[in-house]
Design a protein that fits this description.
The chain is mainly α and 149 residues long. The protein has six helices and two strands; from the N terminus they run H-H-H-H-E-E-H-H. The protein has a two-stranded antiparallel ribbon.
Length: 149
């Protein structure tokens, strides 16, 4: 099956795409501000996010997923362990391996962060948008879902 022919968007569609990208980035930054990661580095945040999404895994798998050497990932994980955010346990299938997972404290931070972001967004919707605008937002969300599917 041949790929579809390339589509050249009109100037107004290109401008719309650029504006959507800008607004989506600003929304993402505002949401991130609501539940700050504190003093964590971007690499540390990426590891925590990976463990949250994919579940427990090894340093080697984390390194592969993040595109870094296992030694570099080991340093990142050590800092997260020292901060009490990640814990290691012996792999039941291979005692030489350590399976890393989020600590209960880190899971609570994630849960609280999600709640803070959702609360901020709900308050912003209620305080900044009228009832008809909220209906328009619901329609726009349906359109955005179609774009990403």
């Amino acid at each position: 099956m041949a790929p579809p022919p390339p589509v050249t968007p009109s100037a107004d569609v290109a401008a719309l795409a650029a504006e959507l990208h800008t607004v989506a980035g600003r929304l993402k930054r505002r949401l991130r501000e609501q539940a700050s990661a504190g003093d964590l580095t971007p690499s540390q945040v990426a590891v925590l996010m990976h463990l949250d999404r994919a579940g427990p895994t090894t340093v080697t798998n984390l390194a592969r997923a993040e595109g870094v050497r296992p030694q570099s990932m080991g340093a990142t994980v050590a800092a997260l362990e020292a901060a009490g955010l990640v814990k290691g346990a012996a792999d039941p299938d291979d005692g030489r391996q350590t399976i890393l997972s989020l600590t209960p404290a880190c899971q609570k931070l994630f849960k609280d962060g999600r709640a803070a972001r959702q609360d901020w967004l709900a308050r912003a919707i209620v305080t900044k948008l009228t009832a008809p605008e909220r209906k328009d937002l619901a329609k726009a969300i349906a359109l955005l879902k179609r774009l990403v599917e």
